[in-house]
What we know:
By secondary structure, the protein is α+β, with helices and mostly antiparallel strands. It has helices spanning 9-20, 26-33, 37-49, 80-88, 116-123, 145-148, 157-163, 180-191, 197-204, 208-220, 252-260, 286-296; strands at 53-59, 66-75, 93-99, 104-112, 130-143, 224-230, 239-247, 265-271, 277-283, 303-316. β3 (93-99) and β4 form a beta hairpin. The longest helix has 13 residues, at 37-49. The chain is globular.
Amino acid sequence: MVETVTLDDLDLDLVHALQIDGRAPFSRVADVLDVSESTVARRYRRLRSAGALRIVGEVNGFRLGYVSWTVRLRCTPDVADAVSSALARRTDTFWVHLLSGGTEISCNTQAHADDDNEILLEKLPRTNRILAVSAHSILGGGSTASTAWAGLHHMSDEQVAALEQPEPTWDVNETLTLDPNDELLLAALSRDGRASYSELAGATGWSESTVRRRMDHLRDNGVLSFEVDIAPKTLGYRAEARLWMSVRPAAVLAVTNALSLHPEVSFAAITTGPTNVLAEIVCRSSHELYRYLTERIATLEDIQGIETAPVVRTVKRAGAILPR
């Protein structure tokens, strides 16, 4: 169960440092924050044991020939909890939200480009209380939750520069193939992105040196990244919503890029479907959400229509099923 945790300035600095590099050694983080390594380790263990924060190894499915999808389900209120929990239990779903008074569910998933339709259908629980389903491919653009959201930014520019890693570069036309041990490694890192090399060696059957080499290879080739998984409420942000927007086709990339620069936006992407831009909004209060919709979004004239669905409850974020 997630405990109530109050973060001080050092905790917020630590969260920001891990957002920049989730595998950064505590000794390096301590140098940047000008505290002892034991203090950093103790703060991290406190946040993690309280269920407030964890580091997740995330896989860029695009590099492996996968397509990302956003799925929307409308259902009767009596089955919303069961359906959202069933989706959350799958290893290939993430960002499972209960929306709009408990009658709608949204989630993201990845499926191989050769068989995505079949896999999507297999994900859905079999019940006649699911009234409507839509699934749309995420084409790209925008940003991901921990790289743009202002709620995770607390350190000085100099401290950020001291922790930043070179961006991986790769051939966009190249698709990589994993071996079974790579999959075991990624599965272990999805549970704990800061698992030790000895723990990862035990999970894969590799030596620690091989684990280190394969992890570096996957990171350098854009397959693996490490993200901070933290509830917005822990940082004082209590109003979330998903937006589906219809944008003039000629301006869809410009609008998505503009949204990704808004501090309220934790995710923005171009999609297929009757709406062509999806965004996730995180605000401190419902009043701030109202002001964002009426003052910030309203200035983007190329948005021709918008549907807003408040997030009632997040069942699953980047990897973990969350307690109620």
